[in-house]
Amino acid sequence: MVRIYTGLSMSEADLLCHWLESHGIECTIPNELAAVAASGTVQVWILDETRAAEAATLTKQWLDAPAEEAQVSLGSWKCAECGERLEKQFTMCWNCGEERMDDKT
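Request: output the structure for the sequence above.
Response:
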């Protein structure tokens, strides 16, 4: 295993892990809650050391990307009615009740 990221936000580490996994790189956040409680930091490790360079490049791209661009790459969608950005698992906008259409992004 190779550590690829250390940060202060569990949600950011989780999103990065999903980003890497969407590119076929298995990763883990060891001792998720204990690590944050003990040190205030969280780490993302990749399992395949041979993909460390690729993971480092993807991590840099993800960290440098605007937040909205990163969300879109993870499958979020934008409500056509009110403009709210929603995660991919939701089929209806929580803000206005508009249903997601397949052609909406």
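The first strand starts at residue 2 and ends at 7.
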